[in-house]
Amino acid sequence: MNDNKKIKVIAFYLPQFHPTPNNDIWWGKGFTEWTNACKARPLFRGHYQPHIPADLGFYDLRLLESRLAQANMAKEYGIDGFCYYHYWFDEGRQELELPFQEVLNSGTPNFPFMLCWANESWYSKFWNNDSTVSKKLLVEQKYEDENENINHFIHLLKAFKDPRHLTIDGKPMFMIYRPLDFPNVNKFIMLWQSLAKKNGLPGIYFIGQTIDIEKDYDPIISFGFDAVNSVRHYDVIRNRPAINKIFTRIKRFLFPSPLKKDYGKVFSSFIGEREKENNVIPTILPNWDHTPRSGKGGYVLVNSTPHFFAKHIEQVFRTLIHKKNKIAFIKSWNEWGEGNYMEPDLKFGRGYLEELKRIKDEFTCE
Prior knowledge:
By secondary structure, the protein is α/β, with parallel strands linked by helices. The strands form four sheets. Strands 1, 2, 3, 4, 7, 8, 9, 10, 12, 13 and 15 form an eleven-stranded mixed sheet that branches. A two-stranded antiparallel sheet has the order 5-6. Strands 11-14 form a two-stranded parallel ribbon. The mean pLDDT is about 90.
């Protein structure tokens, strides 16, 4: 990861595509994210649903063949690594850990990786038509004492020392999904930095993610994070006059329908001045459609195409060309239930992947 002349693209990776005992209890026998994706239906005229996978099919992440096919495809089209979502609650409890543990223990695929601790409680959620949410707690995210934080580090040490692990200045990259929800996160960071050095690493490169970079940048950096990952897909909803928000909520209550924004008109808002700063890592967003999970209470980017996606990539890459670490995240490789994925589907095939490779190659040649 130290070739600073080249742009590096890391794709978030959801390990939800295999059955687990708890998902069987909570959602029904055999539940995976394909269950949500396949049950989706169009909710307005021109709504592209359901999204059906093409080349890779309805894969099962318990299978080595599935994980290999994903990595080979990602590498072919210019993705430099996967950022696996990691779920650690309390007393060593994990969820969805099997795919990454198989990658780590088997040494296959030989494809770079890092982890993002998705530090939030799990709920059974029901989205109301006015976009409010009713929810029931399934697993609570807890932040335990120092011993538990040490156990968490020890559990991940094998991954941190794996030669495939993505690093910056030799430090394994590690993201925290909700850094400001973490009490005493500064003490956690100091502890892990100390443990890393005691175990032969130069440290950990901590990244905090936010959907509100303007508000959260200063506190995240002040807590000891090395960088901030900015994800702006909700800016087009949040940055509206209050009267418009009230009108929209009333309208959705009377005439239930997802909130829609035209991708071609709003993708330029996914990048701002902050993303030009050296310690801010931008996010590339191919699409967004949360309705497989949230129904009429969801948010949809309509009219996303490889053509508009290419313009978005160019915009992101231009924020990187003068940085020391030319890194961008893609949200995501395989979030089919949220409509943001790079894997081929029946509508666009490999179109999004082809545009990523084409533009990345162009920037490499500049």
